[in-house]
Amino acid sequence: MMRPILTGLVMLTASSFAMASDTGPGCGWGSMLFKGQSGVASHVVAATTNGTSGNNTFGMTSGTNGCDTSRTINYTGSNAVVFHNMDRLSNDIAKGDGEILSTVASTMGIQPQDVPTFKRVMHDNFNTLYPNSDVTSEQIVETMVSLMANDKTLAKYV
Q: Which tens digits make up the pLDDT trace of 38-71?
C-alpha cells in the first residue's frame, strides 16, 4: 500500500517542478520574472505566479508573455525524478530493479509490458549511464533516451 502512495508523491512532486520548466510550455509572467534562475524557491514562485494570475493561459491564446504554442510540449518529469533521486536511481540501476527506476520508466511513458526490458537495458548499461561521479541528471536522461533508441522494444518511446 505504501509503494503506490510514494510513487504518486514522487510523480506529483516531479510534475510541480516541471510546471515552471523552460523545456515545456513554461510561459507567463512567473517564467519571465524568474528566467535564468534555478532552485526550488524560484520554480515554486514562478509556478505560483503563473497559476494564480492565469496569465500563461492568456499568453498562449494571444501569443504574448513568452508563450509559443508552436513548440512541442515535452513532459520533463523524468528529468526531475532523476535529479531529485540520483543516488537511489544509481542503486536501482545497479540492481536492475527498484522504485525509482520504475518511476522513471513510468514518467518516460514505458508501458508495463516493456518495463522489464527498460530495467534490463539500463542495468546492462550502468557504466554508460554513470561513466564518472560527476555525471549530471541531464546526461543520465540523455543517455537513457539514446539507449532506448537503440533497443528494438524501447525505440517506440523515443
A: 666 666 666 666 666 666 666 666 667 666 666 5
> Which three three-digit cell numbers place residue 15?
510534475
> Measuring CA to CA, how many Å separate 60 from each of 29, 34, 53, 156?
12, 18, 14, 30
DSSP the chain: -HHHHHHHHHHHHHHHHHHT-TTTT--SHHHHHTTT--SHHHHHHHHHHHHHH-HHHHHHHHT-TT--TTSPP---HHHHHHHHTHHHHHHHHHHT--HHHHHHHHHTT--GGGHHHHHHHHHHTHHHH-SSTT--HHHHHHHHHHHHHTSTTTGGG-
Query: How many whole angstroms separate alpha carbon 41 and alpha carbon 86?
Result: 20
